[in-house]
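Handout, page 2. Input:
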Amino acid sequence: QVQLVESGGGLVQAGGSLRLSCAASGRTFSSYAMGWFRQAPGKEREFVAAISWSGSTTYYADSLKGRFTISRDNAKNTVYLQMNSLKPEDTAVYYCASKGGAYNSGSYFRMGEYGYWGQGTQVTVSS
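Output:
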């Protein structure tokens, strides 16, 4: 079955950086777009970033453009989220997700388009 395992979360001071990784297994990684979402305490899960199956196109939440970068290595079946200039409001559990449909099917922004999810990794940004 499809498995997504996130890593790289932790505690960082405001202004610092973290790189999250998500290792995928169980199907042809390179055929599916990938996304990152996050959920802060008491809030709904929200879209962070997504990347097309080939890696040629990326999408970001407007509020995060310029600070976060999504990338993928199809040879390693891994997607990354580089987070720079972190702020306390970035504190959340970060989840990676794999699109349910292959290639360019569906929206990149809606959670319902993602068929598989990781367990999440906690990111805490102290002020």
